[in-house]
Amino acid sequence: MTASNPKTPIGVGVIGCGEIAQLMHLPVIHELPELRLAALCDLSRTVLDTLGAQYGVTACYQEYQALLDDPAVDAVVICTFDHGPVVEAAIKAGKHFIVEKPLAFTSEEARPLVKAANESGLVGIVGYMKLYDPGYRLGLEKIGQIGRPKMIQVHDFAGRFDRYQQLYTQVRGKDVDMELIKATQADVAARVATGLGQAHAGYADLYMTLLMLGSHDLAVLRGAFGVAERVDYAQAVGPTHIMAVLGFPDRVPALLEVAFGAQYEWWDEWMTVHGEKDEVRIDFQNPYVRNAAATVRVREAAGEGASERILPGTPETAFRRQWQHFIACVEGKAAPLTPLQGGLDDLELAERIIKALPVKPGGGQA
Ligand SMILES: NC(=O)c1ccc[n+]([C@@H]2O[C@H](COP(=O)([O-])OP(=O)(O)OC[C@H]3O[C@@H](n4cnc5c(N)ncnc54)[C@H](O)[C@@H]3O)[C@@H](O)[C@H]2O)c1
Q1: What is the pLDDT of residues 250-261, one digit of tens each?
Q2: Atom 24 of ligand 1 has which residue's CA nearest to it?
Q3: At what angle do helices 204-212 and 178-196 cross, to 10 degrees?
Q4: In what residue span(s) does the Gfo/Idh/MocA-like oxidoreductase N-terminal domain sit (predicted)?
Q5: Which residue intervals of the chain are DSSP H helices?
Q6: CATH number of the domain that 218 lies in?
Q7: Ligand 1 proximity of 100 Cβ (cutoff 6 Å)
Q8: Measured in angstroms, how far is the CA atom of residue 300 from the centroid of ligand 1?
Q9: φ, ψ for residue 120 (rounded to 5)?
Q10: How many domains does the chain have?
Q11: pLDDT over 60 at 224, yes or no
Q12: What domain range is 329 assigned to?
């Protein structure tokens, strides 16, 4: 299927109208004049009826293939749980797409998606919205000014995920086929176990933490320093807490720490780059809070003493910047900043990190 070049407004279909679609993607699609919300897809009829009425959309589908067959849909955003099969179908249907992270659940299933997307000429990006955050972009500029890093640290303990529920109204539907949900989860678990291999399938929870929470951090690190050359060390601190030491060119080490479940009242996700004389730290904000960009802290020499400056990123919603970039790509004015290859690189690295842990066979899954 060859890529089409739709005129704006671009007709967008949303596949999977759950939390992230409702909190971020739908409001942004609705407000950007270059986009037109053309169709919705979800397993829940309640969700479809409510959001269809709210956004004035009549093309509401419970099967994603039906949405992909709709000629009014030029592009889709994929916000389901199991993305790989939907990405494959979107490419076959000739639709441009944003796929929420992770691109897929294993590198093996991601590899053909990257190839198919490249061959299609379609615009396909992974929803690593933090890479579009103005504070992160500013931080990259500052990192570029401090010379060869002595050491990099990336830390993500996240924070309370229930707080933002007071900020937004969400519709959830109980009218979903639970057998289908369970079957999808079981299928994904089996694919993950196969991807990790019998010797490491016992780390499936930790791997999922790396994919669901930590893939942002792998992407942030890669966005600044490229793909890690080595995994020198990995330690499972708990079922959802991992530490790893990665190696970058020129013998630059990076300490990565990701843990899910902290109940902090702040959002605890940052990258610090230690230079010879300076230090740059990027503090990410809670991803569910709109118009909150990352902040950058620069420590450097000032005469005979030290200076510490906090540089706020321009107030902006990273998801909105991501959509604006996507529009520019579809219009042929930009090349994807977060192409599918990066999603594959991160899956490969996540697998390498898990395989650097001591052997832990999974309970007969693999
Ligand atoms: N970029 C970010 O910061 C960010 C934040 C949260 C979630 N996410 C990603 O977004 C995705 C969705 O997360 P969420 O928190 O919105 O989950 P969710 O469970 O709230 O929503 C998923 C929705 O998809 C629907 N769905 C599932 N399978 C479907 C299918 N086959 N066809 C149609 N609809 C289907 C479900 O009914 C549900 O409404 C996940 O992959 C997650 O990793 C990204």
Answers
A1: 999 999 999 999
A2: 16
A3: 100
A4: 10-128
A5: 19-20, 26-31, 45-55, 64-68, 84-92, 107-120, 134-143, 178-196, 204-212, 215-225, 318-330, 340-355
A6: 3.30.360.10
A7: yes
A8: 42
A9: -75, -25
A10: 2
A11: yes
A12: 10-129+321-339
Hey, how many other C-beta atoms are within 10 angstroms of the C-beta on 6?
A: 16
Mean pLDDT for 283-298 is 96
**Secondary structure of residue 329 in the 3-state scheme:** helix
Q: Is 41 in the pocket of ligand 1 (CB under 6 A)?
A: yes
**Quick one: 104 and 168 in the same domain?**
no
Q: From ligand 1's centre to the CA of 299, what distance in Å?
A: 39
**Same-domain check for residues 333 and 306:** no
Judged against a pLDDT cut of 70, whether residue 151 lies above it is answered with: yes
Residues 108 and 198 in one domain: no
Provide the token pair at 258: 């990701």
298-329: per-residue pLDDT in tens?
999 999 999 999 999 999 999 999 999 999 99
Q: Are strands 252-259 and 75-78 parallel, antiparallel or unpaired?
A: unpaired
Average pLDDT over residues 74-86: 98
If you count them, how many residues does the chain have? Answer: 366
In this predicted structure, what is the pLDDT of residue 163? Answer: 87
331 lines ligand 1 (CB under 6 A): no
Looking at the structure, do residues 41 and 177 belong to the same domain, yes or no?
no
Question: Is residue 104 one of the residues assigned to a domain?
Answer: yes
109 and 146 both lie in a single domain: no
Residue 4 lies in a domain: no
Confirm whether 250 is domain-assigned.
yes
Dump pLDDT digits (tens) for 91-148.
999 999 999 999 999 999 999 999 999 999 999 999 999 999 999 999 999 999 999 9
Q: Is residue 245 located within the same domain as residue 144?
A: yes
Same-domain status, 52 and 201: no
Task: Please give the distance, rounded to the nearest whole angstrom, from the Cα atom of residue 310 to the centre of ligand 1.
Answer: 34
List, edge to edge, every strand of the sheet that includes 295-302: 230-238, 241-248, 252-259, 151-158, 268-274, 279-283, 295-302, 305-312
